[in-house]
Amino acid sequence: MNQVNIKEILTQYTSEVNSVLKEIMNIEKNALAPGLVKAMKYSLFSGGKRLRPILTLMVAEMLDGDRDSALRVGASIELVHTYSLIHDDLPSMDDDDFRRGKPSNHKVFGTATAILAGDALLTFAFNILSKLNLPPDKVLKIIEVISQGAGHNGMVGGQVLDLEAEDKEISLEELKKIHSGKTGALFKSSILAGAYCANPDRTELTALERYARYLGLTFQIVDDILDVTGNEEVLGKRVGRDDELNKATYPRLLGLKQAVKEAEFNAEKARDSLGPFGERAFLLKQLVDYILVRQS
Amino acid sequence: MNQVNIKEILTQYTSEVNSVLKEIMNIEKNALAPGLVKAMKYSLFSGGKRLRPILTLMVAEMLDGDRDSALRVGASIELVHTYSLIHDDLPSMDDDDFRRGKPSNHKVFGTATAILAGDALLTFAFNILSKLNLPPDKVLKIIEVISQGAGHNGMVGGQVLDLEAEDKEISLEELKKIHSGKTGALFKSSILAGAYCANPDRTELTALERYARYLGLTFQIVDDILDVTGNEEVLGKRVGRDDELNKATYPRLLGLKQAVKEAEFNAEKARDSLGPFGERAFLLKQLVDYILVRQS
């Protein structure tokens, strides 16, 4: 299977995730605050690649898990991811006016509603999860790994470190810590939550945790590189933003060439982590390459 | 038992809730972002009455539920309540510089960290809940009622309506809708979550839902009244703030005298709702009176 095929498969998966998201977000009827629902949907349906839900789905499939539940779990994680983007773009945070080629949530709905739309998306994610059609103990593990990855020792903690690091000289170790929180933690949650849609054993969970760590790093390094070399139209956001905010990035700390090497190194590690799954990990391996060479 | 005794009992319960909160929030060690943990704890330990956790605990006790779990459930709800206060106080929302007699979270830590501290508290609440020592199906019901009450058709939805209503003439019906979302929904979650720490039947759940509705209204009307008649030092915040923000309130719509009557009427309804529990509901009835005559 070549690069063209993984793209086709991803397009198919993205479309499935979008269908489930549409079904979940069919909440206009009797909504207490219709304006809030509008703001929630604006950011959720602005053309994301749905990478996290796809990870959940691919892992669940690889382990012969419950596919329908995995789609709902993945959709919930996309709600969490979307909330984090809305809050990250706020004037008091990264102050980004555009996201995926469209005005940011707060530019359209105002700061107050944007904050609340984020809050509501995060809360709704856990509501969807609480009603999954899986054994209750599995559901609780899924809620645990998602709330862990999204919380103070994961995504939110990483964002705080990121803000604290602005205008500061930081080391590569510190940069890795920021990214492992900001991006890596929810990647890990997506992958482990997919596993809990099946019956993973200890060895499988350990291998998947390693995969998550290296895939997250690959993703973030490429993200940093694209902020330097990317095409604004393809990216849907302004490039050079990290530099403007005086943010530490891989290209800044290592130079562009070495940053690319670092991304390739982590991609190799991610692929290696999948050893225990053999041929079954075919798609997850292809996904590493896709993330490595992506243009947006 | 007289009014003095309920105050003593509440002091005792508050102290128990605070102990569990302290244990839960003992997360400094190995924290990814120590500054974030500091901001979370600042607002959480600024002297709240812990009314919502106390409701959870009293309901669980009345139904012979698991007391230790009820304390942890209540503590999680207090995390959710605290996050909502932090976000409500933000410059783009109610723009309050003081809360419980201390500078608001964003005045101390800045807007970005305040938003993230709120996000982290909300997320951590679900993490604590996912690890409760109760049957998994009960835990999922608890997560469901809390995420429902805190979300777009509950607390967050109510806050959006509240912001939309500023500088507008609204009806009493619309005001009730705002309050049922903003305050009532999480009261209801606290009460039902307490019930799910036991084995509630349909009749009990229906009675508790009625109790929650009327107690929430009583609480909010008294809150509005205190913003007119209260003592700033006892309240720990400025009075007259609703008027400044041109907010619809019960005293504004009904006049002060009629607003007091409305509070008494709802308190009576709340007490009546507890009929099915007979003598067992003694404390929950006393709590209605406490909320009605409170000074802060």
UniProtKB/TrEMBL annotation, chains A, B:
It catalyses: isopentenyl diphosphate + (2E)-geranyl diphosphate = (2E,6E)-farnesyl diphosphate + diphosphate. It comes from Halothermothrix orenii (strain H 168 / OCM 544 / DSM 9562). Belongs to the FPP/GGPP synthase family. Signal peptide: none annotated. This is Farnesyl diphosphate synthase. CDD domains: Trans_IPPS_HT. Pfam families: polyprenyl_synt. PROSITE patterns: POLYPRENYL_SYNTHASE_1 (PS00723), POLYPRENYL_SYNTHASE_2 (PS00444). Keywords: Isoprene biosynthesis, Magnesium, Metal-binding, Transferase. Its EC number is 2.5.1.10. NCBIfam families: FPPsyn (NF045485). GO terms for biological process: terpenoid biosynthetic process. GO terms for molecular function: (2E,6E)-farnesyl diphosphate synthase activity; metal ion binding. One of its GO terms (cellular component) is cytoplasm.
